[in-house]
Amino acid sequence: MPAKDRDAYIDPDAEEDDFSAEEHDSVGSGDDFDQGTSSRGGKRGGLAGGKKGAEARLKSKGKGGDGYAWEGSISRTWDQVREDDGGSLELSVQEAIARARRKKLQQSGQAVRRTIIRHLVLMLDLSRSMTDRDLRPSRFDLGLEYARAFISEWFDQNPLGQIGVVGMRNGIGERLGEMSGNPQEVLRSIADRDKLMPAGEPSLQNAVEMARGTMSHLPSHASREIVIIFGSLTTCDPDNIFDTLEGCVKDKIRISIVALAAEMKVCRELCERTNGTFAVAMNEGHFKDVLFELIPPPAQLAAPAGAPGRSGPASSAAELMLMGFPSRLPETSPPSLCACHSTIKSEGFICPRCKVKLCDVPTDCDVCGLMIVSSPHLARSYHHLFPVQGYRPVMSMTQENPAGVPAQLACHGCSLPFPLRTLDSSANGGDAGDAAAADGISPLGRYRCPKCAKDFCSDCDVFVHDALHVCPGCC
Amino acid sequence: MDTSTTKAAREDPPAHLTLIVDLNPLQWELSSQASNDTPLSLSQFLAQLMIFINAHLAARDDNTLAVIGALPGYSVMLYSTDDSPPDDEAPARHQANSFQPFRMVDGRIASRIQEEMEKSTDLDGKTDRGLVGAITKALCHINRVNLLSVALTNNPESTSAMAPPSSQSPRMLILSISPDASTSYIPLMNSIFAAQKLKVKIDVCKIFGSDTVFLQQAAYLTGGSYLVLERRDALLQYLSMCFLPPASLRKVLATPSQDKVDFRAACFCHKKVVDIGCVCSVCLSIFCYPITRTSCSTCGTRFPLQTLKRLGYIRQPAAQANGRSKPNGTANGK
Ligand SMILES: [Zn+2]
Ligand SMILES: [Zn+2]
Ligand SMILES: [Zn+2]
Ligand SMILES: [Zn+2]
Ligand SMILES: [Zn+2]
Ligand SMILES: [Zn+2]
């Protein structure tokens, strides 16, 4: 790795002329990193970084037109909602929904191959820079809040996955929570705010090495990922972090970073080389958006077209796993010993192969070794595999309805009637429809499933694609 | 918090009940046969159901109700309290012994059921998937009603599909007589998760036939109860004791709990209910054990040979399709 790259810890894009004086400072501290004296280099870099960070952020955010978060404190999401001529908000809300719908239309029909058995190390920056209050209430509090929400939602969508938590402060990586598939356990590891108080400098290298060690023993069909919430503009590392990066590439660890300050060259490099994503949060809402984009299981690169199942690099990791689906005993059943802790209890799960009692699933049976999962755990991810096709907005009843078929009076989902006036206006819906077509909004408020040709209202369209994942007409 | 909201919080919100009535004509015919211990015909069932519906509506004047019928191959909304009454319905002759609004509700539900049953007699061969359609419709309806009530209270976040139920505590009661339809396993599971998100409890009352694994899971996962009728002539008693009280009273009442929840799944290859299966690590598709295929039908992944051997796959290049003899003697559907 050329030394030039390492000097530019802060991406030139994020810098402007104004703080060229401090630029020298950073180059100096950057050189220090090569020597690997973490305390010295770290301290110097940290002092410069704190001040520089503020300006760099100002610049990077200024470009986005947002300014400092506290400068834009009056701007709120409802400012983006504009009233139409009639003073109604309906249209802009419709537009927001339509935007999401368009995205959905593009997405459906994409590769179904996704990594479902995931292993993730969530890395929290607990350095002093997290006390910055540019995100309210503070980077630390907001980061913690979103990290908790992230964990809950992540387990909701990846029920067979596991999360470990690592904190970065005082120049070392701190293991806050072991790899666990139990959401409660993971949440408990970051429940106590007082134990996580920010201090000192972060060390990306130390923390990434720690995460790498945690995931080194994992089977090949599982994914290994690191998600970093990073608030600093410096990292104080004992050694060359690019060696660590090479190790991660070799171990197929995917690193994604959400930066709260500004873009750092080393961060972008970490993400790009490992096929992860890098994002800088502009404000509170954007922070949550970019963090939550990391939740859905990443699509695997599909096998080359025409050769499904050819053992390429992606499919070589595939495995067939034998799994047992237990039945659950109620609390009223006669107590007996469990195989895992040898304690007497009534409730539990019965291994379908050896009929032994287990306390909790998912787990491996202690007697026969069969992997025991409750089938709902598996079923939670099926909607990623069989997505509902996007509904198309119906532009005019006269054009799209085959002759002789009476128009559907009520939504096929909620059974509430479509507004009647839209039927009358369908005669002149032709030209008005063209404008709306680009937006994905139906002037009639009807959205038609391409498979079963049933019409749905806008609310049901959103609900079916966001929550239900089943078309009421097709199933 | 002002006094009015604390008062409202202490009181129970009005209850919304969605009834899903399984109207499979074949199963009702079987249910009414005299060879059963306690035969129950559709008309006897409906008579008791009407009393239950009236009791629900009488418990509070702002309680709401939706009735959805599940027929072989399709499902249909039979009645909803949001519907405006049809204008053409002439006010029936007033009867001194009945409460007019109840008579109208009962009459409309009964006539709609009759309509649909007559329509469905020629659909016997259709696969049984009306139930999951009815559940998805019920969820769409609950979601829409939630959104409408949220919009009424002027909440700016009314666009979210996941908005928690505002004032109501929606509940769903499935009156089931049909056996499991394993073809609808995935849609049903997706519906269950959507119900969890909407905080809808799904109660299941199994009136006739054997246990359904998937409805058991539905009740368990959403915190509802699953009840198998022991004496079917006492249907009304069961309904009013177990399913009439609102959710907040359930804890006190000790409703019959499920003794055993079966977490089995349906395999993707034959739609058979299995307790041990082979699972593709890429997409989590479930296949029967022992494995009868070399690649995943869902994602196209080819499985490693040694894994296949370990899982009992025997390669028979000559006779792929039929006449294969397995060590365990498993019947091959294909
Ligand atoms: Zn135990
Ligand atoms: Zn076992
Ligand atoms: Zn609808
Ligand atoms: Zn459809
Ligand atoms: Zn099968
Ligand atoms: Zn697969």
UniProtKB/TrEMBL annotation, chain A:
Protein location: Nucleus
Main localization (coarse): nucleus
Domain VWFA: 119-270
PROSITE patterns in alphabetical order: VWFA, ZINC_FINGER_C2H2_1, ZINC_FINGER_C2H2_2
Biological process according to GO: DNA-templated transcription; nucleotide-excision repair; regulation of transcription by RNA polymerase II
Biased composition regions of type Acidic residues, renumbered to the chain: 10-20
Entry keyword Nucleus: yes
Pfam families: C1_4, Ssl1
InterPro entries in the cross-refs: C1-like_sf, Ssl1-like, TFIIH_C1-like_dom, TFIIH_SSL1/p44, VWF_A, vWFA_dom_sf, Znf_C2H2_type, Znf_RING/FYVE/PHD
Zinc finger (C4-type): 351-368
Single annotated GO MF: zinc ion binding
Keywords: DNA damage, DNA repair, Metal-binding, Nucleus, Transcription, Transcription regulation, Zinc, Zinc-finger
Renumbered residue ranges of the record's region Disordered: 1-66
Claim: Nucleus is one of the keywords in the record: yes
Gene Ontology cellular component annotations, sorted alphabetically: transcription factor TFIIH core complex; transcription factor TFIIH holo complex
Domain C2H2-type: 447-469
Protein family per UniProt: Belongs to the GTF2H2 family.
Function: Component of the general transcription and DNA repair factor IIH (TFIIH) core complex, which is involved in general and transcription-coupled nucleotide excision repair (NER) of damaged DNA and, when complexed to TFIIK, in RNA transcription by RNA polymerase II.
Name of the protein in its database record: General transcription and DNA repair factor IIH
Phylogenetic classification of the source organism: Eukaryota, Fungi, Dikarya, Basidiomycota, Agaricomycotina
Automatic annotation (TrEMBL), chain B:
GO cellular component: transcription factor TFIIH core complex; transcription factor TFIIH holo complex
Subcellular localization(s) per the UniProt record: Nucleus
Protein origin, superkingdom: Eukaryota
Coiled coil stretches, renumbered: none
Gene3D superfamilies: von Willebrand factor, type A domain (3.40.50.410)
InterPro entries in UniProt: TFIIH_Tfb4/GTF2H3, vWFA_dom_sf
Example GO BP: nucleotide-excision repair
Record keywords, A-Z: DNA damage, DNA repair, Metal-binding, Nucleus, Transcription, Transcription regulation, Zinc, Zinc-finger
UniProt keyword Flavoprotein, yes or no: no
GO molecular function, one term: zinc ion binding
Oligomeric and partner information: Component of the 7-subunit TFIIH core complex composed of XPB/SSL2, XPD/RAD3, SSL1, TFB1, TFB2, TFB4 and TFB5, which is active in NER. The core complex associates with the 3-subunit CTD-kinase module TFIIK composed of CCL1, KIN28 and TFB3 to form the 10-subunit holoenzyme (holo-TFIIH) active in transcription.
Function: Component of the general transcription and DNA repair factor IIH (TFIIH) core complex, which is involved in general and transcription-coupled nucleotide excision repair (NER) of damaged DNA and, when complexed to TFIIK, in RNA transcription by RNA polymerase II. In NER, TFIIH acts by opening DNA around the lesion to allow the excision of the damaged oligonucleotide and its replacement by a new DNA fragment. In transcription, TFIIH has an essential role in transcription initiation.
Family matches, as PANTHER family: GENERAL TRANSCRIPTION FACTOR IIH SUBUNIT 3, TRANSCRIPTION INITIATION FACTOR IIH TFIIH , POLYPEPTIDE 3-RELATED
Family, per entry: Belongs to the TFB4 family.
Protein name: General transcription and DNA repair factor IIH subunit TFB4
Organism of provenance: Tulasnella calospora MUT 4182
